[in-house]
Amino acid sequence: MKNILILALILFLSACGAKMMELSNADAERGASKFPGLTMTELTHGKAQYEKNCQSCHGLYAPGSKNEMQWRLIVPAMVNKANKKMGKMEVPIDSANQQSILKYVITMGTAPVKK
Fold first, then answer.
1. Does the predicted model carry a pTM greater than 0.85?
2. What is the Cα Rg of the chain in Å?
3. How far apart are CA 18 and CA 11, in angstroms?
4. Is the dihedral of CA 66, 33, 104, 74 positive or negative?
């Protein structure tokens, strides 16, 4: 019985963490108001970097779960932590990818809630 409960909890938590928002041109336009020149390509890259790098250590947080100031503190700290954790054989997260992640989470953190 205990194993079934643990399995159910794991499935529930993985389903919660895996649900990421789909991107649209409206998202890129909204993001460009904060990050001039932001394109859909850059936003998509930020999402991919967020999913790839952040998921390797913990579940993904919904971008709207934190405000801009929180993300501006969390992302650099987590990138630093992830880079220290990576072995010499892995490519560290560079400043360009860190900025992509930051632009993605801040932009999508202000996305209207879809019902």
1. no
2. 16
3. 11
4. negative
- The one-character DSSP state at 63 is G
Q: Which residues of the chain have pLDDT under 50?
A: 7-9, 11-19
Q: What is the mean pLDDT of the chain?
A: 83
- Provide the 3-class DSSP secondary structure of residue 61: coil
Closest CA to 93 of 61, 52, 59: 52
Taking only the tens place, the pLDDT of each residue in 46-78 is 999 999 988 888 889 999 999 999 999 999 999
Strands (DSSP E) contained in 1-115 are none
Q: Show me where the domains of the chain are located.
A: 2-109
Q: How far is CA 58 from the centre of its chain?
A: 11
CB neighbourhood size of 31 (10 A): 25
Residue of 112, 108, 90, 102 whose CA lies nearest to 20: 108
Residue with tokens 């790839």: 52
